[in-house]
Each structure stands twice: as structure tokens, then as C-alpha cells.
Amino acid sequence: MPTPPVPEGPRPARRMGIRALLLALLLPGLTALLAVDSWSDYRAFARINENAYDQALLEPLSALDDSVGIDARGEIGLRVSFEVQAMFDSVQALHKHLRVTLTPLAPPGAPERTLMGVADLPPPPAGAEFLPPPASFGGAHGGRLLFYDAAYRGYAVRVAVLRRDIENGAGQRYRLQVQAAESTGRRAEARQAWLRHELWQDARMLGLTLLLVWLGVAWALRPLERLRASLRERPTNDLQPLDARGVPSEVAPLVDAVNHHIDEHREMLAEQASFLADASHQLRTPLAIMLAQAGYALREQDPERMRETLHAIMAQLARSRRLSDQLLALAHARRALDEAGTPPLADLNAVAREVVLQYLPLAREKQLDLGWVDVRGEDAPEGADAPAAPVRAQAAELHEALANLLHNAIRHTPAGGSVTVLVRIDGGLAVAEVRDAGPGIAPERREAAFERFGRSTGGAGLGLAIARAYARRNGGDIVLAEGEANAEGGQGLCARLLLPRARTQ
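The chain above was modelled as a monomer; its predicted structure follows.
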């Protein structure tokens, strides 16, 4: 029967690459910057273009103004020369118009008279402000100038108008108005041509920038590509550090972090191999002894001596069982915490008191004086709700750590001696101490006592290693100091479990 296909889970979303990310960040900003810059340049060009075309309109306007004069009869007349018409025809516009009018100032409302040009050219807007002409204007003095846009015969025109007052030979005053108009098609074409050129230039700049970013990122990532290729070619068991030479400085911290992780993993594997080798050695010795004892029991004919051999095998089995339990405890203590979030609140004082009650029968069996000093003093109330020595830790693991410390103290303290367990608060620390009157450990050998199978204190050498592993697993540590002096001159040993004190509110 064929195996049904396993449904595939959702594929992880593809992350944006560095190139795409840089382009996504740079493209909008660069486009907006070029757009603002092009718009600013376009407005500046439009003003320059408008001024240039307006200046071209002033020339025929000035020539027409100079052509106005008083004839022999004392009337105001206009003498338009061929040069004026040629000058106006040189203006590059599809439609061009000139107009000169006279309007009597008195009486008010007198009709105007057209001296030249079309009669329906759009007049200046009502209320428009006339300004003095520029210094380069060559017409008569005293006139006022205005430029305005209008529509004439279905197309847009730009009109320049000059106004000034003039008298005829009889002293009658008139308002002279000279207009020059041209269609705005040429102006619009010039602006559009410049805008197309500017947009094309911006597009080329934008494309070149994107190409440089793409090539720059590709060039900058070449060391990472080489690093990736070298990792793919590596054997599975190769845990040598990565070669960070040539890697960009921004990526170097990441490579250093990976190398640090590789070093920790290599050390962990080496420690695991050492642990397995030591554990195998420690278990092989009692197994070999029991195998020899079992063989001896099989050959023994005397029932009494056979019973003695079986008792010896049982004792060896008990020691092997404790050794196996300690190995499992050490493996558990050195494993990383699986629980997420903040550890629960525990009372170190209550945990230490439970350990003392648990080992009280063993201490009495060895005729030891097992003492307990509560952190709250001798008159501590029973069953108090508030923790006396609050810490953030697993209570079961603290119990295991203190149990190993107390078991070591009871085992190494001679009969008739004393062992004291106390809890105290030292600033921001909660401290649990196990003091014994045993032979103690020399100061230079105390740190080595935490090595597994070190046998600095006899036995399998796992008790202190397990206790420290559990302490560090919960954010604390264990230190060794001198304990209580004994009759044989030994200084004893004091094992201190240090944990950060937790706030209960």
C-alpha cells in the first residue's frame, strides 16, 4: 500500500534582499528629490523664458512709442517705419498683433481712436497695476508698462501695453496706449522641450544610481558569497572558525558572533565527549568488580561466604545506582532551560529547611549535630506566607543543589562532629551556607573540587559539580570557604549558595 503524501507546511515568506531593500529605501527618496529639484529648475527656466520673450516684445513697443508725434497741423500722428514692422516680424510667434490708440482725457467718456492695428485686441485687465518700464526701455519718458495674458480669436496671447499722456499742438491732452501681442505657443514649446530634456536627464541619473547601487551591493557581498561557498564545501564535522578576512566591517560582528557560537559548540561537544568518557570509565569499574564478585560467588561452595559475596555485590550496586543518579542529575543540570519567561518565585529559606529535615536521620545515624539557623531568627513563625529569602529560581533544583552540599558535608564530617545549615540576606543576595567540621579543602584546590570526577573530596566527585550546575542554571553560583574547625586540626568547609534576591512586590 503506497504511503500517502505528507502535506507540506506553509513556506516561509521570502525575505527582501539587500539589493531590493536598498532600492526600496533609495528609490522613493531619490525620485522625490529629483522631482523637487526638476520642478524648481523648471520654474526658474519658465521665469527666464518668460522674461526673454517679454523683452522681445518691448522692442517693437518702444519703436512704436517713438513713432508717435505731432504733425504740421498740430495733430497727433503715427509714422510707422519699415524697420518697426520688420522688428515685430522677427518675433518668433505664430500670431503677432500691434495696436496704437488715442483717448481724449476730456471730456470724460470720449471714444478712443485707433491709430494702428486691430481694434479688438483684448484690453488690459481692470484694476491692473502699471509699472515704470525698465531702464533698457528706449521709448518716451513718463510711460507706464504692463504685461498680461489673454485669449484672442481662440488662442492664448501675451500682451505688452504702454500707456502715457500726450498733448497735441492745441494743448489738448490724450492717453496714448501702445499694445504688442503675440501667441504663447513658442513659449510653451520651449518650456516643454526643456522639461523633456530635464526629465530625460533625471531618468538617466536615476537609472545610473540604481545600477551603481546594484553593482556596489554585488561587489560588497562578494566576500559573503565566498564565505558561503567555503561553508558549503566544509565537512560536517569541521568546526573551525570562519575566515573573516575581506568581510565588510558591518558584517564582521556577525561573523565574530558565528565564530563565538562555533567555539561554544565545539567546547560543548568536547565536554560531552569528555563526560561520556568519564561516565563510561566510572561505570566500568564497579561493573568489573561486580562481574568478578559474581564469578567468585558461582564458584563458592560455602553458603555463608556466598552470602558475604552477594552483600558485597549489593553494596556495589547501591554505589553504582547513586553514581548513575548523579550522572543523570548532572546532565539535567547542565542542560539549558526550556521554560520561557521569568522563573517562579521560590523561598530559599524554606527550601534549605526542607533539606535539613530530609537529612536529619542520616546525620543522627552518623552521630552528627545537624544545626539549622533560620534567616528570620530563633522565634520564626511556622507557616509564614511571605518568603523569608525570596529568589527567582526552580525550588526543586535549589533543593537538589543544597541536598548535594549537605550530603557531602555529612559524608566528610567525622562522627561526633557538627554540620550547620543557615540562610542569611547579604545586600542584594540570598545566601544559603552549609558548614561542616570535616577535613576541608586547601584554598588552591577548591576550584578544582567542582570538576566532575575530580575526587578532591573523595567519592565520585559529582556532588559539587551538580550543585554548581544547578546554581548557575538559576542565575547563582557556589563558592567554597573555610568552615568549622575540628579536633583533628582541620578547618572544615563552608559551601555558600549565592542567588540574587528577588523583589516580592
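The longest strand covers residues 155-167.
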